[in-house]
Amino acid sequence: MPRDPLQERLYAAKIGLSIVLKRSTSAMIKNSIQTFGICNLDTSHPAAWAPYLNERVERVLVYDDSTIHPPEYCEAFCREHGFELCENWTDFVDRCEAVAIMGVDWDRHVEQARPFVERDRTVFIDKPIACRDRDLEEIESWKGKKLVLGSSTRLHERLQAWRRETGVRSILSTVGQDEPFAYASHAVEMGQTVAGTGAEGVRWLADGRPSSFQVRHRSGVFWVVQIQNPHAVFHVLAGGEERTESIHVKQPGEPYSLHGEMVSEVLGVTRGDEPKTPVEEAVEAIRILRAAHTSRERGGEWVALSDAKLLEFSGEAYAAEYRGRKYPGGVT
């Protein structure tokens, strides 16, 4: 049966409008940031972000202070991904409309982020965002700024769905890596995405593989964190009044798929979206982890997050250890 010519014209116009809208949306995303900065190439994250950034921003600048890698590594990285290496810090700060602070020395994150915050630029700080009290207090003072903080595991769609649930009764959040702070922060942040803010105290439960600690939360949720679990990478077991769900954020041997979500989060905040993780929640996650290890040092007693003597982890020491693992023979 022949189609009505008017209907055909309307259908063609509808398809054409759809194509125009898709192209316009893509152009808007592409043009929302002209120059994006990456501060330090220490981890695998810059390479994982690279394809998403190349799709969505005009230009990527890289500044690296050689905390981990030698200059020739950074030069090769920029050639591979089509990025521009910027060797002058002042120039880097002036040119970047948004920045990702990705160094492993968390003691330097605040000083690196500060000039961008002062210029009202969008700032992503990778996990762990900081550790020292003075750094956490300064980050708290930045509430209302364009900040994206911590682990991309928070952006998993099932964790975000549970975040909107009422009546969450229990949480088991687990990470597999054998590291007490830098990687253990993933486990805390995943569980906290479900629980929200409101942690009051922590007690260490057990050493071993896995080690575990319990978080006392004002909501009454029963929350246990496992670290150094050899049978999981990133996993959360969430229980509510009517159901329980096992959420594999990442399983052993699987590629990690949330880097693109984090790039989208940063670009969204640049366009005016509210960040999914409030500043106070990101800071609380660090205090939970510090309180856990303080409890361990004190024989498993409950430790309040407000304790004035929470254990601190040195970012400088971790960076030196990390560099030693990357370049066991040293850098020539």
Q: Proportion of β residues? A: 15-25%
As laid out across the biggest beta sheet, the strand order is 12-11-7-10-9-8-13
- What is the H/E order? HEHEHEHEHEHEHEHEEEEEHHEH
Q: What is the CATH C level class of one domain, in words? A: Alpha Beta
Q: Report the CATH topology name of one domain.
A: Dihydrodipicolinate Reductase, domain 2
Shape: globular
- Our count of helices gives 11
> What distance lies between the first and last C-alpha atoms, to the nearest angstrom?
77 Å
Poorly predicted spans:
10-28
Q: Which percent bin holds the helix content?
A: 40-55%
Report the mean per-residue pLDDT as an integer. Answer: 91
Rounded Rg = 22 Å
Q: What is the makeup of the main sheet? A: 7 strands, mixed
> Helices and strands: which structural class?
alpha/beta
Query: Mind telling me which CATH architecture of one domain this is?
Result: 2-Layer Sandwich
CATH superfamily of one domain: Dihydrodipicolinate Reductase, domain 2
Count of strand segments: 13
Outline the structure in words.
By secondary structure, the protein is an alpha/beta fold. It has a domain at 154-254 and 278-311: Dihydrodipicolinate Reductase, domain 2 (2-Layer Sandwich). It is built from eleven helices and 13 strands. The strands form two sheets. The protein has a seven-stranded mixed beta sheet with strand order 12-11-7-10-9-8-13, covered by helices on one side. Strand 4 (98-101), helix 5 and strand 5 (122-125) form a beta-alpha-beta unit. Helix 7 packs across helix 8 (184-195) and helix 8 (184-195) packs across helix 10. The longest helix has 27 residues, at 5-31. It is globular and about 50 Å long. Mean pLDDT is 91; it is low at 10-28.
